[in-house]
Task: inverse folding
């Protein structure tokens, strides 16, 4: 699933997850992805974009464990 996000395969994500914009402020947009099926490994995914570039990926699995990956610019 993270590979679909990082590869930009949005159409495949839409087939499996409901995608909605939950917060927008300035150049930041926070999206939440919720599975359409109970069979998915991740029960919630949040994506933070800053200036159109992914800045953070948050994953929550069916056991309630959360992982967060921050993407930092080298500039």
Result:
């Amino acid at each position: 699933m993270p590979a679909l996000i990082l590869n930009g395969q949005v159409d495949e994500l839409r087939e499996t997850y409901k995608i909605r914009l939950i917060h927008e402020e300035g150049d930041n947009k926070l999206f939440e992805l919720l599975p359409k099926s109970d069979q998915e490994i991740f029960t919630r995914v949040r994506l933070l974009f800053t200036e159109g570039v992914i800045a953070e990926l948050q994953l929550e699995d069916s056991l309630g464990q959360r992982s967060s990956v921050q993407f930092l610019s080298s500039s």
Notes: The domain at 2-70 is CATH 2.50.20.10 (outer membrane lipoprotein receptor (LolB), chain A). The chain has one domain: 2-70.
